[in-house]
Amino acid sequence: MYSHSSSIYTPIQPLPFNRISQIVASSFQVIMVLEPATATQAAAPAMPQLKDELDIVIPTIRNLDFLEMWRPFFQPYHLIIVQDGDPSKTIKVPPGFDYELYNRNDINKILGPKASCISFKDSACRCFGYMVSKKKYIFTIDDDCFVAKDPSGKAVNALEQHIKNLLCPSTPFFFNTLYDPFRDGADFVRGYPFSLREGVPTAVSHGLWLNIPDYDAPTQLVKPLERNTRFVDAVLTIPKGTLFPMCGMNLAFDRDLIGPAMYFGLMGDGQPIGRYDDMWAGWCVKVICDHLGLGVKTGLPYIYHSKASNPFVNLRKEYKGIFWQEEIIPFFQQVVLPKDCTTVQKCYIELAKQVKEKLSKVDPYFDKLGDAMVTWIKAWDELNPPVLNGKAA
Ligand SMILES: O=c1ccn([C@@H]2O[C@H](COP(=O)(O)OP(=O)(O)O[C@H]3O[C@@H](CO)[C@H](O)[C@H]3O)[C@@H](O)[C@H]2O)c(=O)[nH]1
Ligand SMILES: [Mn+2]
């Protein structure tokens, strides 16, 4: 509290401590005392946005009790649960949710031989949920992700923030130093070209994680106790020409704009690699978004990631990816898609061709992956026939 000798200052009334901590918390990035919000703290939004235009896709090998904490935010929405592993196992879903559930038998029945492109025993299986959905938007979340608290202690409605991110344009062609210009209380800064201020449609909203960060196995092994306690109150557009490591645990996207490129690859059972499903999808998605002039955002919302998977098991799944990616990234950085690739499907088929041509020398796996990318598009188009004037084309 300030006390001044001069008479021009009237002594400021001392602020109660909790008011000071609120002011501090609201104006700086704060190191947070970590625990997830409680179910009661998560209050249902007045009007759930995009209620009939968004599906929530959850890959799982567990019971879905985590949904209890999300109930206020998720209950109005339709869930697509992709059950991985043993199809004879029963996955318990808390009552009151509207959902469809697919296990491996269902996937094989629906896709027939094309089911070979859907991974087994890896969270990559989630992309089947993107394919069977009929909605414009998808939000996908892991079953060990809970409601986070922001620095003020308020429960974060991650779905609401993703929707906000997706409904606002992105700015990939020129970096706005005040972050998201479309956010309340922000705007384009001086020197930002007016010709670019309309922005472009946002295809992807990539959220982050408090508590257990999405580290690779070597980092997890070196820093087993590290927890992410930093809540950075920002949403950024990832600039055009820049790749990023897309994590699938807290991710939303516009299915009409970029859905066919959200293939999570061949991972898990019978494959030489795992835990690169979301990374592969993210690299494919970003080069196609850059080509088609679409935006990718990262930052808010946070979820509270509760479970650290076993770093030794993860190392075994990831290790080939750790050295392959030193060749994969330069490949994606040099990808050029022809002008006549005007749809996501055309871009993706062209990308599959280049994967087979240029990455098979790294490992024969990429030849198989290139074929699986084509199978994925065929299966996608079979389940989602292009519509012309409201009729199947
Ligand atoms: O064989 C499996 C294993 C898991 N799942 C489901 O997938 C998600 C993520 O699983 P989990 O939280 O156990 O693993 P993480 O290491 O935290 O996952 C991170 O790595 C990425 C793997 O690609 C993932 O997107 C990241 O979050 C859970 O819902 C499991 O139930 C599965 O379906 N099959
Ligand atoms: Mn997890």
From TrEMBL:
Its main location: Golgi. Keywords: Cell wall biogenesis/degradation, Glycoprotein, Golgi apparatus, Isomerase. Its EC number is 5.4.99.30. Probable UDP-L-arabinose mutase involved in the biosynthesis of cell wall non-cellulosic polysaccharides. It is found in: Golgi apparatus. It is an enzyme of class 5 (isomerase). Pfam families: RGP. It catalyses: UDP-beta-L-arabinofuranose = UDP-beta-L-arabinopyranose. Belongs to the RGP family. This is UDP-arabinopyranose mutase. It comes from the Eukaryota.
